[in-house]
Automatic annotation (TrEMBL):
<dbReference type="InterPro" id="IPR008516">
    <property type="entry name" value="Na/K-Atpase_Interacting"/>
</dbReference>
<feature type="transmembrane region" description="Helical">
    <location>
        <begin position="34"/>
        <end position="55"/>
    </location>
</feature>
<keyword id="KW-1003">Cell membrane</keyword>
<dbReference type="Pfam" id="PF05640">
    <property type="entry name" value="NKAIN"/>
</dbReference>
<keyword id="KW-1133">Transmembrane helix</keyword>
<protein>
    <recommendedName>
        <fullName>Sodium/potassium-transporting ATPase subunit beta-1-interacting protein</fullName>
    </recommendedName>
</protein>
<dbReference type="GO" id="GO:0005886">
    <property type="term" value="C:plasma membrane"/>
</dbReference>
<feature type="transmembrane region" description="Helical">
    <location>
        <begin position="62"/>
        <end position="86"/>
    </location>
</feature>
<keyword id="KW-0472">Membrane</keyword>
<comment type="similarity">
    <text>Belongs to the NKAIN family.</text>
</comment>
<dbReference type="GO" id="GO:0002028">
    <property type="term" value="P:regulation of sodium ion transport"/>
</dbReference>
<keyword id="KW-0812">Transmembrane</keyword>
Amino acid sequence: MGICSRRHFLLTICSLQLITTIERQVFDFLGFMWAPILVNFFNIIFVILGFFGAFQYRPKYIISYCIWNTLWLGWNIFIICFYLNVGILNKNSDILNLGTGSFSWWYVNGPGCKAVYDVTEPELFRPARPTNVTDCVLSYEVIEILHAATQCVLGFMAIVGGICLSKVFLEEDDSSKNVIICEGTAKY
């Protein structure tokens, strides 16, 4: 009974991670934020791997999922620090868009936001950046930080759940081999 609840816990966390990552991926595509798009893509792959590992009793898949979630946790902490301008990080830099000049979709399309554009000569390969955005209920930084914080919480729970479940799977796997060791020889 204990293994079933751990397994269902990890399957639930994987499902929630998949849903929230796909949602985040959609908005990153809308804003042409290329670095988050790439990292989200890898997260989707590893979440599916973790789901499969929990569903099929594969501890190695769960361990690789836990290792990825450690990196995913670090990425999301970086995103939080980026939008808070911690240290040398600057939210107006081109780190996340890989030099394309794009910006967060939420910057212009956040709840209640009204953007003012002063484009005299549009650039061919760069999106038009508004000169002023007003009346936002939540600023885009807060929305991006909430997305990253949600991923941090889910990632931490996935690491803990994955470690517990893989430990149980590995203990069961060792006990089911029926190996008897007698005086240096193994009998099967």
